[in-house]
Amino acid sequence: MHEFTELTEKLFKGAHNLSHLREEDIQIGVTPKEEVYREDKVVLYRFTPKVEPSLNIPILIVYALVNRPYIVDLQEGRSLVANLLNLGLDVYLIDWGYPSRGDRFLTLDDYINGYINNCVDVVRDRYNLEQINLLGICQGGAFSLCYSSIYPEKVKNLITMVTPVDFHTNEGLLNVWGGSTLGSQALDVDLMVDTLGNIPGDFMNLEFLMLKPFQLGVQKYIDFLDTIDEDKLLNFLRMEKWIFDSPDQAGEAYRQFMKDFYQGNKLIKGEIEIGKKRVNLEKICIPVLNIYAEQDHLVPSASSLALEKYIGSEDYTVRSFPVGHIGMYVSSKVQRDLPPTIVDWLKARV
Question: Which residues are catalytically annotated?
Answer without folding.
Answer: 138
